[in-house]
Design goal:
The complex is a heterodimer of chains A (about 110) and B (about 110). Chain A has about 110 residues and is mainly β. Chain A has no helices and eleven strands. The termini of chain A are far apart. Classes of the chains: A mainly beta (about 110), B mainly beta (about 110).
Chain lengths: ~110, ~110
């Protein structure tokens, strides 16, 4: 059973566009929602994270939007660049320190 | 560089064989996690160790086992290998911030 559903599976945008990646969850015990970025040949690396007490968090060109009632959260990349081309994973965990549950990933390609 | 070291980077073996993957966590991190990454399943949690003791178990097959040694390095043992075990195996360690995992660059296992 997949606990975090991520979409789309792949995404192609033009340079300067705003790709949006969506995730949905069912477990209401989840209270920590990070996004990880993975470049080819590398391991995933933490990009940005949010807790459900806020609806939005920005770090540079990356923004997480969180909708607690809908149990959904999304990643927006402003002014996307070719260097943002990577696979992005959403994830979730609960206060019981259970290991992160990851979505299946979105392969983003930003073309010049 | 995440500070997590995994060896070997690549491994090719035959069905029925046994392999051992090794992970050294970041200095000072007590928790080690093992994840399996395949194209269709994303990042699947296998097992977590904390300071030498098993802390959590995920979708780990009975043919797989792991341990964490007193020096905190960990090994993932995969036996009776099948074609479907071909995947990237990631080790991650965590620090004080819940949910922030530091991943190694992975071990790519190919079973022929």
């Amino acid at each position: 059973q997949q606990q975090v559903k991520q979409s789309p599976q792949s995404l192609i945008v033009q340079k300067g566009g705003i790709p949006i990646i969506n995730c949905a969850y069912e477990n209401t015990a989840f209270d920590y929602f990070p996004w990880y970025q993975q470049f080819p040949g590398k391991g995933p690396a933490l990009l940005i994270a949010i807790r459900p007490d806020v609806s939005e968090k920005k770090e540079g060109r990356f923004t997480i939007s969180f909708n607690k009632s809908a149990k959904q959260f999304s990643l927006h990349i402003m002014d996307s660049q070719p260097g943002d081309s990577a696979t992005y994973f959403c994830a979730a965990s609960d206060a019981g320190n259970t290991p992160l549950v990851f979505g299946k990933g979105t392969r983003l390609s930003v073309i010049a | 560089d995440s500070g997590v070291t995994q060896t070997p980077k690549h491994l090719i073996t035959a069905t029925g064989q046994r392999v051992t993957l090794r992970c050294s966590p970041r200095s000072g991190d007590l928790s080690v996690y093992w994840y399996q990454q395949s194209l269709d399943q994303g990042l699947q949690f296998l097992i977590q160790y904390y300071n030498g003791e098993e802390r959590a178990k995920g979708n780990i097959l009975e043919r797989f086992s792991a341990q964490q040694f007193p020096d905190l390095h960990s090994e993932l043992n995969l036996s009776s290998l099948e074609l479907g075990d071909s995947a990237l195996y990631f080790c991650a360690s965590s620090g004080l911030q819940r949910g922030e995992l530091f991943f190694g660059e992975g071990s790519r296992l190919t079973v022929l």
